[in-house]
UniProtKB/TrEMBL annotation:
Domain of life, per lineage: Eukaryota
Keywords carried by this UniProt record: Hydrolase, Protease, Thiol protease, Ubl conjugation pathway
Domain UCH catalytic, residue spans: 6-228
Species this protein is from: Syncephalis pseudoplumigaleata
The protein, known as: Ubiquitin carboxyl-terminal hydrolase
Amino acid sequence: MADTGQWCLIESDPGVFTQLITDMGVEGVQVEEVWDFDTLAQVEPIYGLIFLFKYEAGASDRGAAMAVDTEAANEAAMDSIFFAQQVINNACATQAILSILMNRPDVELGEELTQFREFAQSLPSDMKGLAISNSDKIRQVHNSFARSETFSNEQPVTANDNEDLFHFVSYVPIHGALYELDGLQPRPVYLGPCTEKDWLEKVRPIIEARMASYSSSEIRFNLMAVCKDRSLVLAEQLAATDRRLTRAQKKLSRLVQTLHGERDLLSMFLSDEREKLARYRTENARRKHNYIPLIYTLLQQLAAKGKLADTLPEARQKAAERKARQRQAKQPTSKP
């Protein structure tokens, strides 16, 4: 590989990768470690997966061996993929991250990476890798996560012959197809068609098969999801819930007002009904009462006081008027 400035080893850690992405000017993206494929739904939307495995002879070819016949792939789509070959040691972590970021139109790259993508997009894959290695911004951000040494910080820490080597590859849905982007391969590895909804289901057996290809004693694998900033996702979900709550409160308020109106109307009907029943009871009580002794006594009192003769003409007059009104009410109304 070319020597275009020394690149350090960086820790495979979601916090490190998240900060690395942020320091490159990308906003709204974070990295989450994946312990179980069944929990991936908790961190959606996911832009891509980064898989770390122990590098052995032929280890990188194991992924390519699972490729679908490239003739089935859309060659025009393949050419539009941002794919960079790794041309320098220790750069695979950053290249795996860039392989996802550069191929997702729904990620805001920021000014510097946007300009870099526009500059490098038309270059062949080996020249893309060289452009990444020669980018002062990308290299400086990468090397800012160098592991500290006790007595010297003058040079970034790199792998030596006594250390196991590990390699990062990316899995990304691009143009309706699933790809493995491995800088040690000559081109993207086409893994078949997919959609944004099912690509995680399709990549799962591929990654599991790669892990199974190692001996049972090898457990040093790491899988990380490059996803939308969880704080943004949760803030959006909270805002959506608040909007639903506001709508529900308005609906409830209207319902409460409607129910209050119905209650007032029913209360009025109930009051009228109770008054009517009370009137019925009073009238029925009067119908059952014998008023003749009372009337006889009143007449005697009036006669004794000499007032009965004075009230008779007036009583007769009123009786005559009442009969006249009754006769008039019984007569049919003539039509014009």
